[in-house]
Every structure is written in C-alpha cells, then in structure tokens.
Amino acid sequence: MKKIAINIDERRNADIKERVIKALRNAGLDYQVECFNNAIDIYAYTPDILIGHINNVNSELISNPPHSLKWFHAMSAGVDKALKNAGQSFLEHNIKFSNVKGIHSVAMREYVLGTMLYFEKNMDRWIEQKNNTEWNRTPLSCLSGKEMLVYGVGNIGKEVGKVANFLGMRVIGVSSSGRSVENFEKVYKPDMLKQCVKSADYIVIAAPRTTETESIFNKEMLSNFKRETVLINVSRGELIDEQCLADFLNAGRIRGAALDVFRQEPLPDTSVLWQCKNLVITPHISGYFSNGMALGIECFIDNLKEWRKTGNLVSEVSISKGY
Q1: Interval 98-155: pLDDT, tens
Q2: Which stretches make up the D-isomer specific 2-hydroxyacid dehydrogenase NAD-binding domain (predicted)?
Q3: For the whole model, what pTM was predicted?
C-alpha cells in the first residue's frame, strides 16, 4: 500500500491525519497515512508522499530524501524557502512539488480591500477622535476612480483586480508575461514597473519571491511613487527594502503602507517599522482563515487524483521559475 506522511503542525497533526484519511475515503482512494514530528521517523516510514508546511523538518528531509519519496505537497502558497533550502534536491531526486496556490485568494482579496478602506476612509483619525472624545467632521474620499497597480497577476492578484474593478477603480498590472487579464485595463511586463508606479494611488504586491523580484521595491523604485500612494504587501517581505520604506513613511514622502509580510518573522521588537507613521502591521494573517486547512486538503486530493490519472499535478511548482 502506498504511504502518505504528514508533518504540518505538532499540535494538529493527529487531527489533520484523520481529516486526510476521511478525504481519501470519500474519494475512494486507499493509502496508509501517518503523522510525524521529526525527519528521522518520516525517513524510517519511507513515504511515497509527504504533506506539510515548509518547515525545518521537511526541508531537512527533502534535502536528503528516502528513496521512496515521489512528491511533496506544501500546505502553503509561498515556496521560496523550500526552493532555497532544497530546490536542487527536488531535481536530483525527481521529487514532484505542489502547493495550495489559489486557496487563499478570496481571504487575501478581502484583506487588501480592508486596508484600502482603512486609508481611504481615514479610520485612524476616527479611532483617535473617539479616544479623545472629539467630534470633528471632514469629507471622505472614495476608491472609485482611483488607480490600483497590482504587481504579480497570479491567483491572488487576479482576485484583487476583480474587486478593485467592481469598485470602479482603474486597475493595471505587472506580470512576467504581460498577458491581458480580465478586469485589468492593461498588464505590462516587468520592465515597465518603474513607469507604472508613478500614477498609482494603491500598489499591491502579490508577486512571488524570486531572484528577479527580491528588493524590487528599493529606494529607486519608491522614489517614483506619488506622495498620495499607499503600498500594500501580501507577498513576501523580501520584495521591499524595509529601511527605505520606513524612511519614506516617516518623511511623509508616501501616504502610507500596510504590511502583512516581513523579511524576518516574527517582526523583531527592534525593527524600525514598529514606529513608522501611517503604517499598518499585521502578523502574516492575510491568507490565514478558519477554512484554510480544509481547502488545503481538498487541493491535495485534487492533485492526487490527477497524479494517479496522468502523472501530473494540478498545482505543480516550477523549480526553474520559482513558483
């Protein structure tokens, strides 16, 4: 019998194991399933498939995999850390790699909408006035008619563009292909990014971390922003030069930012970002929602069916592209 090993969360592995077994049973698939908390036990189990988060245990295992391992299914969308730690091993040992891209798109779309409304409706001002028992009325602005730039027009970027278009915003994008996408007025190739940021009111970073995207929002890029621009990052902290962003925010050079991801997580107490003006900080929760694990297991089952049928995966990661 083929074997599946699970190493997602020590506190929840047993529960997740039962949910995977139930999903396999409902799909009419017969596999042996066990959960583990360390690489040694997983190695001894000789699994055909490993399901897990991209943590140190799984990275260690993939770097020196058991001969039986054919496929690693990551229960996350971002894969840059796995590729950095064990990318070559996937190729050398012919191990397939899939993730759960797409399952977080709706939750992250709502996060982006919430942060835009926070800035557009001056929510920080009303919170401050409440704390000071003040009643001062000032007119509000609207998202309708504003311009949004989405950097990275994948599953998440498309969902963000959809809601922005519905609200009457002008939506443009930048992607590696530059191909046209529904709800986007125009999608440009990466060499146009510096030009595109000049007119955007809101810039949403939804691109994966690769050698091409790392530190792309540096001092030179930020210098092209309008003073009215708000930057929202739901991708990876490594795409932004955090010190430069802090300098621009504190100098009032850009209107604001909302960051859900950082170069170091948890964000250290010593980070300059904590004291920044007009900055919303959230602890990497834009795609963290109550139904996430169920959708992740559903995504795995869809991949497993396709793998058995064709030898391919629905959400296979390209090692060469980095996503």
Answers
A1: 999 999 999 999 999 999 999 999 999 999 999 999 999 999 999 999 999 999 999 9
A2: 114-286
A3: 0.92
Catalytic residues: 236, 265, 284
Q: Is the Cβ–Cβ distance between 48 and 73 less than 8 Å? A: no
Give me 127's structure tokens. 């919170």
Amino acid found at 166: F
